[in-house]
Amino acid sequence: MDLTENFDLESALDDTLGNLPEAEEAAAPQPAPRRDLNPFMRKIPVTLTLEVGAVEIPLSELFAIEHGSVLELDKHAGEPLDIKINGTRVGRAEVVVVGENYGLRVVELENLDMGLLSS
């Protein structure tokens, strides 16, 4: 081939790739199929807690706690309590009685797209 000629790279590649044996074409990596993780995610256990409140105290006060001690929490009486999932706040709720058990009535959820898990 004369170097002064125009060389058509695309045609050369098409010619070369068109002559590959079928075994080599079959060995080409295929993209992995897309998986719907939602059925798997729905089975992951999480811990949902209702946090009444918290207080930060020094160790000296902690060691002084005894039967009958009262610690003031950071929540006002009647204020909705924090709903936490694995320790992360996701909303607020009120305590209700359901039969002989306590329950919670959700009054606020924070930007959770629970629809992603239900498809």
From TrEMBL:
Keywords: Cell membrane, Chemotaxis, Flagellar rotation, Membrane
A Pfam family it matches: FliMN_C
Keyword NADP annotated: no
Membrane-related topology note: Peripheral membrane protein
Keyword Lipid metabolism tagged: no
Disordered: annotated segments: 14-37
Annotated coiled-coil segments of the chain: none
GO cellular component entries: bacterial-type flagellum basal body; plasma membrane
Example GO molecular function: cytoskeletal motor activity
GO biological process: bacterial-type flagellum-dependent cell motility; chemotaxis
Entry similarity comment: Belongs to the FliN/MopA/SpaO family.
Protein name: Flagellar motor switch protein FliN
Origin species: Paludibacterium paludis
